[in-house]
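FORM 7B: Structural annotation worksheet

SECTION A. Query
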Amino acid sequence: MATYTQLSTGAKMPLVGLGTWKSPAGQVTAAVMAAIDAGYRHFDCAYMYQNENEVGEGIQQKIKEGVVKREDLFIVSKLWCMFYDKPLVKGACQKTLADLKLDYLDLYLMHRPLGFKAGDELFPKDDKGMFIPSNTDILQTWDAMEELVDAGLVKAIGISNFNHEQIERILNKPGLKHKPTNNQIECHPYVTQEKLIKYCQSKGIVVTAYCPLGSPDRPWAKPENPSLLDDPKIKEIAARHNKTPAQISRCWTVGTPSCNTAIKENRCEEQVEPASIPYELWHSSDFSLTL
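SECTION B. Predicted structure
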């Protein structure tokens, strides 16, 4: 089974990545180091997660130890919405690079298809509690993203949480120099995204699945929401194949890069381990009929 997918730039992107969203402050560096020891080479970061400095510490420590080289790693980060004004994009990228202690990113994404008002607040709101948008068109932001590639700060650029119409706007932008290579979206057995994935594939855009385990600890979750890892059918399949519900859920994204947060060392090992599940399981009736 392949362990990576290839972007339109030719770069090889590992299929399993460590997500760093919601990672508790003070635990991120150790988690990144444990992940590298467990075999992770793909790390998904973002300015909005407010922990890139800790991620960078973990990466640099393992490089110093000789466990990995920079070129062994595939590092992804995201431009946050408050930096969508074209003059702010390069500085935001340089801030991320400084925090991660890197000279370049393998992939840099626009985090969302809508910008926020520039300033010091991650989520600027008006007196009615409504988000304050930026007046910048995302096509202007994409112009600045392209300049990052030309400057050698990033190897590839992409998008996150973009739908069909929003992607079309970028692909049809006059003078497009660098097309999106990746769209990172929520994807798991409860949110299958089949139409969007097929569309992206038709355009040569690799899809990365975030929250492949359903993100049971997401801040907006309600008590009555179903839990993917507690789903009776998934637990039944897991027991039948002597795997954990998390590993079975990851099977849904086979062939698609996916990122999930795994702070504890044993969770890092568990999340990278689905690659050892027999090939036949990926194509069994368990998945074609029930997930």
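SECTION C. Observations
The radius of gyration is 19 Å. The mean pLDDT is 85.

SECTION D. Sign-off
Analyst initials: ____
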